[in-house]
Design goal:
InterPro entries: Aminoglycoside_PTrfase, Kinase-like_dom_sf. GO terms for molecular function: transferase activity. This is Phosphotransferase family enzyme. The protein is of the alpha+beta class and about 375 residues long. The chain folds into two domains: about 180 residues, Phosphorylase Kinase, domain 1; about 200 residues, Alpha-Beta Complex (Aminoglycoside 3'-phosphotransferase, Chain: A, domain 2), CATH 3.90.1200. Helix content is about 40%, strand content about 15%. Strands 5-6-7-9-8 form a five-stranded antiparallel β-sheet, sandwiched between helices. Helix 10 packs antiparallel against helix 11.
Length: about 375
Amino acid sequence: MSVGARYVGRAPAFEVEPGWWSEVEAVTRHLDRLLGVRTVVLRLVHADEAVIGRGGRVVYHVEALDEPRSGVLDETPLPEWDEIVAEQPLRATWAEVDGPRRLIEWAQGIIGPRDAVQVKTWNLSCLIRFPGAWAKATSRFCSIDADIIEHIRRYDDTLAPAVLATSRENRWSLLAHAPGTDCWEPDRPSVESVVSRWVAAQAALADEAFALDAPRLLPSALADEIAALIPRVDLSERGILELVDRLPAIVGELEAAGLPITLVHGDFHPGNWRSDGTQRVIVDWADTFVGHPATDIRRLHDFLPPEKRDHAAEVWSAAWRRELPGCDPLRALQPMSVLGPLTYALMYQRFLDNIEPDERIYHQDDPGNCLRSALDMAGCAL
């Protein structure tokens, strides 16, 4: 615990639910009551691995925004404190001292002095909730939510939350609250509405995709990029090298579907859809990249129960045929079952290459797991 960068002590251990390391609302709620001042979590310092991302004993660097109540913290000097607060070139801006405070003050300068609740913080983003609005900071290697949303809303102003403000220099977004609940178990109308409207926006954005400020993960580059990734991952090379040799043919089959390179949401699972029963919006645009649109339907497939997958694929295919007569969207699904995991292997390695060492635990196994998934789908033996 610090006030600014000054160490003030350690809080007694406590338990929180749901126990996801990045979800810190319950952490700061407990510490606010304990210390009598507002607190923010800057970053994860250490986690005893239970399930990656959840459970175990977690140590955070927490900043108190005022002097905490006396007699509560263990003020015994912490030998590793200088190391904890030492500058780290890959540290996220919100993981620095005063980082969340600056984000909160920027948002309050626009919407007024509303209560701020830190909901999430980790190596990819920091998320602050206000009554009626959300402030979000994203990493240097991710997309800026507000920037992407502004492009999308030019074609469909109901598909994503309204943008209240953007600081591109800081990679901050201030977005209107999307009413309703997350659609983890979407009904048929939600699938039909969200998937069809997103396809229409993707089709409209295709001509300008390469001008957008978003990373690129292109099928045409996969073979070279996966070949470069292999030596960096703890994986037997025999099967993966066979797969790399097959990639030009698999990419050719994908391209034969006739779909354009365009903007891809990147994390198109139904938990990133919000619905109030009437309006449905897509949230969390930080993983957006320029790539193949079948990546998104594959991501959705992996999150839906088996009995809902065919319906989603049919809706997606019909939407693309409306937007691009003559294309054969369903032809893209089989090659994408292999190319999708390879794309995510590269995305996760990009995360690892650009986040500080203490937070790599979130993603350390992801590139290898994705390569194994691709091998399984391609029928290659390790």
